[in-house]
Amino acid sequence: MKTILKQIAEKTKQEERAERAAVVAELNNPSTSNDRRNFLKKAALGGVALGGLMHLSVEDTIAQTTRSVSRASSPTDLRITDLRVAEKGYGSMVNRIIRIDTNQGISGIGDIRDGTDQRFALFLKSKIVGLNPCNVEMLFKIIRQFGGHGRMGGGVSAVETACWDICGKAYGVPVWQLIGGRYRDRIRCYADTPDGGDPATQRRRLLERLTIQKFTWLKMDLRVAGAAQDGTLVNNNFWFGENAPRGRSFGEGGYDAYSNKDHQFTQIQITEKGLEEIQKRVEEVRNVVGTEVPISTDHFGYMDSNQMIRLGRAVDKYRLAWLEDTIPWYNYEQLKDIKRAIETPVCTGEDIYMLTNSYMGGFKGMIDAQAVDIIHPDGMSAGGILETKKITDYAEAAGIPAAFHTNSTPVAWMAHVHCAAASEGFLVLEHHHVDTENWENMVKMTGSKPLLTDGFANVPLDAPGLGIELNDDVIKGMMRDSSKYFEPTPEWDNPGRTYDKLWI
Predict the structure, then answer these.
(1) pLDDT (tens digit, 9 = 90+) per residue, 344-361?
(2) How many whole angstroms separate alpha carbon 149 and alpha carbon 334?
(3) Would you call 450 helix, strand, or coil by DSSP?
(4) Residue 276, CA distances (Å) to 203, 236, 270, 397 in order
(5) CATH of region 76-173+484-492
(6) What's the chain's Rg over C-alpha atoms?
(7) Where are the domains of the chain?
(8) How do residues 243-299 score in pLDDT, each as one tens digit?
(9) Which H or E run contains 295?
(10) Which of 17, 61, 75, 211 could cross-link 170 (Cys pair, CB 3.0–4.6 Å)?
């Protein structure tokens, strides 16, 4: 037995010398990111060679070499020291990425989702500095009150995601391992395919998704209001004609424009000719991609539940995977009316914050009401990775599957991959940026598998945290001023004592 161990030890020494040389080369490479460099240094410090264990007994050697305790950090002593954004300001995808730094050189990354004001995340800096990022659920409960539905949940969700990334790196395990383990090694994705105002182009792109990019689930726009032919809609010109009410944007406090109305308050209706045109479009797509492939639909326009029922019945025979965001998610009873009246599944939820929420309710109310067939959380609005898993598990217990919405950076996408791996009730994950140049190149996988293979996301099995690091060169190339990459944010340091309690 000892002879065998000596042979193993000598072989290990040779392998370690080669690995050490490779690590040194990577450390000396100017293109190696700081996060990767810190990880390599700590991993090197934490490694224990078989060759260094020959003084131990056989039993102790076996015990030592089969331990899976990470020596890369001291997780109980971790403290958050900083929060920064990749690019201050707005106008590019880069400004959605945040980074949380710690006192041990381990950093975590998160994503505030598209269209989110960065200040929702930066505001939280003073609430979390000095806390241990590995106490993720406790930290989430401290900051959750500062999030809300829609993009207001982006700051809390980004911070939560970054903390899981740090925690995984500190313990040397993937995030999915920390939230209960995995049910699957790869994640099925649906390819979002906007119409671009041209149904023929959309059909061509859908076919490419299927035959070239190898996706097994598709999503198409089925836009009605705003892009109508003559005689297909009633009251459309009032909202989209030359004299339509433009009003101020919702962000500026306006309520006059079409995009600021709840669906029920536009009173746009579909004519019989309009329904025939919708059927024609769906049938043409079905003829192109076949009957085996699930096709989800989105972006119908703002119309009330009566019109959505008529639309749903018109396309029922084409066996669509779901109708997405038919009316506002908080109108539970009207959603139930649509669900009961049509055969096509009803799906919504990308703007809902948390499982339970005191303002307009959260996912729990919609699930308890059995108002939809499929929930559609976006983890970067819902509250982060663990909260999305809780939502998915609650829906599963109610017999409702979950499809995950995501339309931001690969950081957000990978957060959903880990949540999907750990959630039994998961169905399919959105890939929104199939055609966006350099989207995949914004990050580098730290494990052995690529981000995506033939329409399936790969779950990181051999990389800690989210399993990715930022591709600094690519991201800097997307910035207005690359010299300000993750520049300091002292203006968001502790402002002094604030009374954040929600009760007296």
Answers:
(1) 999 999 999 999 988 888
(2) 20
(3) coil
(4) 18, 17, 10, 39
(5) 3.30.390.10
(6) 25
(7) 2-65, 76-173+484-492
(8) 777 767 666 766 778 888 899 999 999 999 999 999 999 999 999 999 999 999 999
(9) strand 295-298
(10) 75
